[in-house]
RNA sequence: GCGCCCGUAGCUCAGCUGGAUAGAGCGUCGGACUUCGAAUCCGCAGGCCGCAGGUUCGAAUCCUGCCGGGCGCGCCA
């Protein structure tokens, strides 16, 4: 079982403090934490909370506790300052415990049992089959796949699900455009990636509809576009006719639908492959959209739902502290989006019996998920606390937010091509004589790694502006910086060879600040990763990995801390420090779906 | 009108289950290559934590009210 050494050391010290405290009555357990002040040492305990129960001032308590810890072998110094107990660790002694652990224990690679034995479903991506994936999907995919990887590292059994929206009006628009404008051409004949080809048709439809709308003069009569589509529009009528034909199972419509969805999904698969993601389960709305009706009927009998005067079945949102009523079945008996979401969730509960189901969906649907979860908890009380909406903010462009209706989107494939081109140019400049295929391989690793790191480094709720140049930069808190640290660590070890084989490492000699910084980052790594997994905060993963990289860079550049040329025992100890850093770095990169590079 | 999210250094963002003198990256300025990769590293400067109250020994963090920005509030998906 992975061992979080940092937690263990803290628990060890806290145990001594708690023993002292409990001899003097009931007190909250000692919460040793990281100090905010740089000169306060390595661990700190505020003693103010004990002042009342011990009837002593905090400084006096801290002073006595300092004496308790002073004798501990891992403690170099314990002192009381302004009511705080500050502990400075004996880093030589700590190093002797940290490095053997960091080189072998799975915890140093981010593995934990924080979610051991749990079954976790992660639904993400959720594309529509009428246009290619865009930057928003990219954030979604990177968040979803990383959360899945983190959960797996934390010991969970993970099922990654992609729910494909493959039916509905928008699909019919592309299909109609195909019939009208495509002259039977396939994507191959048109020379287009197949999902882009379908997207082109969708745009053609929107253009034709816009022209029809403008020519109709409906706008001057005060009719907006949506209303026009649903009432007057000839194109709108055709789309609706096609949707009805689809629902009736019309053979020709179904055949075209299958073909065009196939084009889309084939194109998506290429994008997923390039991004390095893979799903365990594909759900298609064409197969799930009728689910939920039985559930509604049952809930109606049980009193969860009620029938309103028009005949629709509704859920009273007052039951979950919200206002209004949510229709779960139209008055004509047909289902709404929520109907199938309910059905799909219950089906997954029955087939998987999950402990957690995580929906990775943008924050514009926060309300929808509050309602959905509220209804589900009424229908199936056992899901309480098991449903999570991993809500995330929009990605904006340097010149404003994305608007798909205005065609103002960044296509995911094009974006990756752009980043690759930028990374390639930089790599080529650095390595003009290197084999071109190898330059491309490195450029791809830097481009995709940089993209993922950049998308993960922001807390999920944060809306941010995507910056291509920054995303592949090596300076600062970036993916390439972490890859570079990994490569430089490898460079030392290659040069070192087996020079330290059989040499007893002198860990007690690792007392330089640059060495301690690496040890600290290694110690903190597992806890951060486990936290990232449990709290659904992938930005903790980028942070923890970056901290290892940064500490290592400081060590690497320190001339007093050279591996090669140092006294043998010291050299061996430092070599193991490098190996340990490289091991944790590799783990961090892997969890983010990034490719480590031996040379850059 | 109601709900949710956000407001922190010139810029982009962490920190938000309360702890000391609020952090990181970028940018600016100044340093470090005869030595393991200078694509790096080190340092300086830079803050009414949107505003005003409240709770507390202690508030960026919790509560209330404002101000500013975003997203929602459908028998759409």
Give a written overview of the molecule:
- By secondary structure, the protein is an alpha/beta fold.
- It has 4 domains: 5-89, Gyrase A, domain 2, CATH 3.30.1360.70; 168-281, no CATH class; 293-334, no CATH class; 413-591, Isoleucyl-tRNA Synthetase, Domain 1 (Orthogonal Bundle).
- 54% of the residues lie in helices and 11% in strands.
- The protein is built from 22 helices and 14 strands.
- The strands form 4 sheets. The protein has a 5-stranded parallel β-sheet, with helices on both faces.
- α15 links the parallel β10 and β11 (387-392).
- The longest helix has 25 residues, at 251-275.
- It is globular.
- The model has no long low-confidence stretch (mean pLDDT 93).
- The structure holds one RNA strand of 77 nucleotides.
Give a brief description.
This protein has 22 helices and 14 strands. With 600 residues, the protein is of the alpha/beta class.
The main sheet orders its strands as 6-5-4-10-11
| Integer tally of domains | 4
Largest sheet at a glance? 5 strands, parallel
In whole angstroms, the N-to-C terminal distance is 35 Å
Strand content: 5-15%
- The averaged pLDDT comes out at 93
Radius of gyration: 29 Å
Helix amount, in percent?
Answer: 40-55%
What is the overall shape?
Answer: globular
Q: What's the CATH first level of the largest domain?
A: Mainly Alpha
| Low confidence ranges | none
Annotated CATH architecture of the largest domain: Orthogonal Bundle
CATH topology of the largest domain: Isoleucyl-tRNA Synthetase, Domain 1
CATH superfamily label of the largest domain: Isoleucyl-tRNA Synthetase, Domain 1
Total strands: 14
Structural class: alpha/beta
> What's the helix count?
22
């Amino acid at each position: 079982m992975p061992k979080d050494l940092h937690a263990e050391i803290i628990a060890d010290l806290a145990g001594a403090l708690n023993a002292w405290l409990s001899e003097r009555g009931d007190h909250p357990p000692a919460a040793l934490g990281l100090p905010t002040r740089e000169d306060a040492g390595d661990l700190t305990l505020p003693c103010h909370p004990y002042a009342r129960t011990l009837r002593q001032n905090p400084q006096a308590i801290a002073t006595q506790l300092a004496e308790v810890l002073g004798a501990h072998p891992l403690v170099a110094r314990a002192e009381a300052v302004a009511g705080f107990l500050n502990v400075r660790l004996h880093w030589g002694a700590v190093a002797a415990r940290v490095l053997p652990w960091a080189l072998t224990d799975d915890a140093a690679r981010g593995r934990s049992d924080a979610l051991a034995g749990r079954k976790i479903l992660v639904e993400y991506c959720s594309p529509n089959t009428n246009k290619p994936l865009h930057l928003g999907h990219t954030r979604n995919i990177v968040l979803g796949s990383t959360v899945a990887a983190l959960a797996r590292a934390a010991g969970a059994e993970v099922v990654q699900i992609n729910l494909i929206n493959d039916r509905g009006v928008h699909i019919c628009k592309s299909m109609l455009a195909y019939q009208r404008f495509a002259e039977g051409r396939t994507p191959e004949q048109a020379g287009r990636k197949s999902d882009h080809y379908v997207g082109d048709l969708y745009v053609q439809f929107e253009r034709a509809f816009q022209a029809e709308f403008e020519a109709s003069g409906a706008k001057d009569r005060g009719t907006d576009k949506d209303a026009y589509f649903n009432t007057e529009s000839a194109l709108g009528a055709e789309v609706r006719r096609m949707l009805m034909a689809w629902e009736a199972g019309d053979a020709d419509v179904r055949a075209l639908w299958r073909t065009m969805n196939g084009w889309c999904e084939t194109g998506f698969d290429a994008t997923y492959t390039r991004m390095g993601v893979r799903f365990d389960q594909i759900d298609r709305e064409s197969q799930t959209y009728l689910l939920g009706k039985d559930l509604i009927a049952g809930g109606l009998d049980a009193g969860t739902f009620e029938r309103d005067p028009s005949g629709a079945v509704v859920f009273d949102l007052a039951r979950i502290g919200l206002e209004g009523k949510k229709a779960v079945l139209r008055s004509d008996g047909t289902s709404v989006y929520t109907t199938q979401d309910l059905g799909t969730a219950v089906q997954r509960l029955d087939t998987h019996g999950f402990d957690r189901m995580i929906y990775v969906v943008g924050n514009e649907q926060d309300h929808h998920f509050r309602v959905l979860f509220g209804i589900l908890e009424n229908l199936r009380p056992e899901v309480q606390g098991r449903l999570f909406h991993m809500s995330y903010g929009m990605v904006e462009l340097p010149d404003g937010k994305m608007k798909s209706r205005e065609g103002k989107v960044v296509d995911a494939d094009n974006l990756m091509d752009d980043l690759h081109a930028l990374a390639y140019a930089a790599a080529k400049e650095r390595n003009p004589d290197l084999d071109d295929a190898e330059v491309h391989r490195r450029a791809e690793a830097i481009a995709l790694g940089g993209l993922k790191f950049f998308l993960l480094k922001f807390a999920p709720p944060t809306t941010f502006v995507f910056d291509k140049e920054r995303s592949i930069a090596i300076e600062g808190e970036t993916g390439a910086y972490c890859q570079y640290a990994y490569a430089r660590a490898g460079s030392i070890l290659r040069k070192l060879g087996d020079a330290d084989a059989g040499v007893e490492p002198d860990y007690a000699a690792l007392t330089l600040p640059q060495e301690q910084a690496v040890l600290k980052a290694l110690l903190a790594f597992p806890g951060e990763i486990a936290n990232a997994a449990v709290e659904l905060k992938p930005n903790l993963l980028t942070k923890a990995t970056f901290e290892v990289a940064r500490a290592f860079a400081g060590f690497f550049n320190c001339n007093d801390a050279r591996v090669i040329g140092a006294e043998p025992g010291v050299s061996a100890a430092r070599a193991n420090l490098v190996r340990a850093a490289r091991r944790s770095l590799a783990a961090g990169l892997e969890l983010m779906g990034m490719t480590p590079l031996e040379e850059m």
